[in-house]
Amino acid sequence: MKYHQRDIVEVNFLFPDGVFKPHPAIIVSNDQLQEDEMGVMYLVLITSNDKINMQYSYPLTDDMIVGHSFSKPSIVKCQIIAGYVERDISRRLGSIKEEFFNEIVDKIIESIF
Q1: CATH number reported for the structural domain that contains residue 95 in this entry
Q2: Is 2 part of a structural domain of the chain?
Q3: How many domains are contained in the chain?
Q4: Residue-wise pLDDT tens for the chain (113 aa)?
């Protein structure tokens, strides 16, 4: 297994206009799911678009991240979860520190449930 929970990865994401573009995301599913379900993992998308509804988002700063920094202010879109497999990931960018990852998971739960 190459990728783990809390990793920030880049995936080809299908946008509403039908175009695929590389896009950063955080793996939120645990490693066991990936092992048990033939590599399936769940990701939340990261965006620099500041026109999104902040009620369902979590702001990222460079001090929350290990091994990477974003060139623009970035936000986790906690209401958009997508399923991917390892072959969909083009590269690993870094990871989210555990304390902030836990806050993101809480925001996902609040946003969806």
Answers
A1: 2.30.30.110
A2: no
A3: 1
A4: 789 999 999 998 887 898 888 999 999 999 998 888 778 899 999 998 877 778 899 999 999 999 999 998 999 999 888 898 888 999 999 999 999 999 999 999 999 88
